[in-house]
Every structure is written in C-alpha cells, then in structure tokens.
Amino acid sequence: MALRKAIVAGNWKMNNLVAEAVALAEEVRSSLGQVRTVDVAVCPTYTSLYAVGKALEGSLIQLGAQDAYIKPSGAFTGEISPQMLLDVGCMWTIIGHSERRHVLGESDALQNAKTRFALSSGLKVMFCIGELLDERKANITNKVLERQLTLGLAGLSPENLENVVIAYEPVWAIGTGETASPEQAEEAHVFIRGWVAKVFGDASASQMRIQYGGSVTPKTVEGLFEKENIDGFLVGGASLKPVDFAVIVQACA
Ligand code: PGA
Question: Residues enclosing ligand 1, CB less than 6 A?
Fold first, then answer.
C-alpha cells in the first residue's frame, strides 16, 4: 500500500452490449475520470472497445482489452491483434486470465507468446496467475505460481517488466463470492515479489505492481489494500456496478 501507485482495473468479461458498455463507462468516468492517485482502467469486450474509448476520451481512465493474439494480422479467424487494440485506443491488455487458461484450455507457453508480442507491440500487460482450489488444498500454490511466472514471463527483460502488472487471482475466488483473506493474498504477493526479485532483480521487484483479483467488493477491499504487497485490484463482478467500482478505487486513493 502506497509504496507503488495503485492500479485498479475492471474486467467486464463477456458482458454488456455496446450501449450498455458506453453507459457504464460514462458512469465510471463521471465518478472517477479525474482520479490521479490511482491508475484506473476498464476492459470491455472487443466489440465495445472503440465506443468505450470514445466515451472515455479526455478522462484519465485507461482502456484495456481482455486478451490479444500473437500475430499482427493474417489468417487467424476470430483473433484480435495488439495492433488492432492500439488502433482503438487500448493501453492495456489482460493476458493469462484464468478463464483463458481453464475454460479455453490455453497453455503457459501461449500466455508467454501473447505477453511478449503484446509488449513488443506497445501494449502494457496485466498478467494473471493463480492456483485452483485443489492446488491450494494440496499445498502447491507457490509451485503453481512459480510455474506460471517462469513459463509465462520467460524471455522478458527488466525493461519489459516496467510495462507489466501481475494479477494474483486464485481461481477458487473468481466469481465465487469467496475472497482470499488479506493474509492469504499477502502471502502469495510476497512470494510473487520474491520471484521477481530472484529473476529480474530487486529494482524490478520493488517497482512491480501486483494486483489481487477474486471477488473483490467494497466490503473486502480495505482489508486487502492494507497489506504492503497489494498494489491494487483486478475486479470482475463488482466492476459492472459503477458505485461499487468507485468505492474500490477510492479505497486505493
Ligand atoms: P470477480 O472476477 O471479481 O468477479 O471474482 C475477477 C476476475 O476474474 O478478474
């Protein structure tokens, strides 16, 4: 808390038609559009990016996508490139969200290729990792996080890392209403920061912003944000409710 500039992002997932997304963006803009002490981003679906970007123009709210492919263009039916995302005003993309990994079956290697290509294209990346409930119960949380970090961030330089935020999102807490306790989250964040220090050095580790994600709400945000290694949030369900999202951002301001 307060060591690094907090970053709170709304992951709107596969929700909202364009008009609904624009209305939500306008509400977010009117409550948070001038907040300077926290980086605030929203990540609508691809189909709403352009319109939401227009609705946010001139505000401080940043635009992000939920995924990005590993090629600039070509015969990749259904995919969207970082170049296309930059073209509609994105600064960020989420990579490695647990729903990509576990619902769509995407590998660590693919997350690595996506991360590297997004960064080399000029996007910033929110790189998500997190353990399944069975993995936590089997006491292998750190092993899982280490694997996801090692494979997912392979080949990056410390300079690349300046454009990366890591989101720790325990899969059992995503969309379940069950939040990790501040202690559980902090323990994972300490492990992640230690890994960054070991691989990229102390300077990268102390600058790295690590978000927590998984059923964050106005009720749980304060306890989590008190922890030294929690630098913001990746918010799903609560980011669709503009008042809740504003409370979460203000708690980090
Ligand atoms: P949730 O989603 O806040 O609805 O749990 C978080 C996420 O998946 O990023």
Answer: 11, 169, 174-175, 213-216, 234-238
Taking a C-beta distance cutoff of 8 angstroms, is the pair 170, 130 a contact? Answer: yes
Instruction: Point out the ligand 1 atom lying closest to the alpha carbon of residue 98.
Output: 8
Choosing from 98, 235, 244, 247 the residue with most ligand 1 atoms within 8 A of its CB, the one to mutate for a pocket test is: 235
CATH number of 6-252: 3.20.20.70
CB 39 within 8 Å of CB 68 = no
Return the ligand 1 atom nearest residue 11 CA.
Answer: 9
Instruction: Name the one residue in this structure whose structure tokens are 């492919």.
Output: 69
pLDDT at 1 over 80: no
Which parts of 104-216 are beta strand (E)?
124-129, 164-168, 210-213
Note every long-range contact of 11-14, with CB atoms under 8 Å and residues 24 or more positions apart, other chains counting: 11/43, 11/66, 11/94, 11/97, 11/213, 11/234, 11/235, 11/236, 11/239, 12/42, 12/43, 12/44, 12/45, 12/48, 12/66, 12/239, 12/240, 13/45, 13/66, 13/99, 13/236, 14/45
Model pTM score: 0.97
The model's pLDDT over 64-97, given as tens digits with 9 standing for 90+, comes to 999 999 999 999 999 999 999 999 999 999 999 9
- Delimit the domains of the chain by residue range: 6-252
Cα separation, 62 vs 40, in Å, equals 6
pLDDT (mean) for 204-213: 98
Residue 2 confidence (pLDDT):
54
Q: What burial class does residue 2 get, using C-beta atoms within 10 Å of its C-beta: 0-12 exposed, 13-18 middle, 19+ buried?
A: exposed
